[in-house]
Amino acid sequence: MNSVAGSSNSVGLTGNWVRVPGIKSGNDAVRAAVFTNAYNANLAFPTNSLLTLPASNTAAGTTTNVWSPFGSARALTSPISFDSAGTYYFSYLMFAPNDGWGNWGSAVAGLLNGLPSNNTDSSKRALYFGWTYAGAPIIKLDSANLPVWEGGSYGAVGASTSSVATGNKSWFVVVRINTVATGNDSVRIKLFAPSGTIPTSDSAITWDATYSTPITGDWTHLAVQTEYNGLIDEIRGGLSYSGVAGFASATTLGAPSISGLVRKGNSSTISVSVNAPGFVRFFINGKRIPGCLKVATSGTSPNFTASCTWKPSVQGTRTFSASFTPADSTFLAADSSPSVFPISKRTNTR
């Protein structure tokens, strides 16, 4: 994101990235967008994660060492309600290098329950999680118009750790949020070094910090806040740990459907729905359907379809099925359940 913010390709977000109005220590306004820098070469995922950095991933600028907060937010397509039970996951890469003078930077992500109307509007709340001047992983619930290190105390602080992982690389941050209808909601955070491995299940994680408190209302925005040389990239959110951690997720492949009456010698279209991009192969009675061997999906996540038009060469009741090969390595291959359709005799002669 550059100084004018704007939109970007994404899933689950809508509209443009916009500045979060705010102010630091009473006189330094939050700047227009997330601060940019030249540390992309230090970004890395843990060794056993399937997530990778795009080949074209570059910083939007190279200005460094600016002691002003930067904050941006973008609306969630579906707000997260803290008034009903749910489990949500986030992950991102975080890097805040030490300049040799004992300085590093602040880099947190989080949620807002709305945008402040101006720099001094303290009516909106922020739930931030990441690494900041506490020198440790933190979770904090406070006013959205303030830098994360100002205002009230941190909700939870983990053990002290460096702002960069081993080898001068980024941390991989995983966050789990559990919401409840009544009582304490909980937020947990864990930092992983790229030289290590991450558990395949979040039940095996020993969390760095846990914050429990009642939180209410709909939280409408994803937010990012940094200062100095803090960098955040590759933000992911979802309902499953495997999705944000970079492990292969189960694919949901529907049974084949055919609209209308199917007749021998007449063109018919067979379709399936799937929750990931990739390619579909269609079968009739276990044999491949000619011309339907590698049908690309269309649509947007998580609603994709694959359709193929062919002419049945036989009549009678037949069983149809499909197999799916993912284009995204974080999804598994899948076979559909069967569908049975009658194929009527042709209505014309050759």
Q: In words, what does this structure look like?
A:
- The chain is an all-beta fold.
- It folds into two domains: 233 residues, Jelly Rolls (Sandwich); 88 residues, Immunoglobulins (Immunoglobulin-like, Sandwich).
- It has one helix and 25 strands.
- It has a seven-stranded antiparallel sheet, with no helix packed on it.
- The longest helix has 5 residues.
- The protein is elongated and about 85 Å long.
- The N and C termini lie far apart (62 Å).
Q: Biggest sheet, open or closed, and with what strands and sense?
A: 7 strands, antiparallel
Strand numbers in spatial order across the main sheet:
1-4-13-6-7-8-9
Helix and strand element order:
EEEEEEEEEEEEEEHEEEEEEEEEEE
Q: What is the overall shape?
A: elongated
Number of helices: 1
Query: Considering DSSP H and I runs of 4 or more, what fraction of the residues is helical?
Result: under 10%
CATH top-level class of the largest domain = Mainly Beta
Question: Care to count the β-strands?
Answer: 25
For the record, the count of structural domains works out to 2
Please state roughly what percent of the residues sit in beta strands, choosing from under 5%, 5-15%, 15-25%, 25-35%, 35-45% or over 45%. 35-45%
Q: On the 0-100 scale, what is the average pLDDT? A: 90
**Uncertain residue ranges:** none
Question: What is the CATH topology assignment of the largest domain?
Answer: Jelly Rolls
Rg for CA atoms: 25 Å
Named at the architecture level, the CATH assignment of the largest domain is Sandwich
Structural class designation: mainly beta
Question: Distance N terminus to C terminus?
Answer: 62 Å
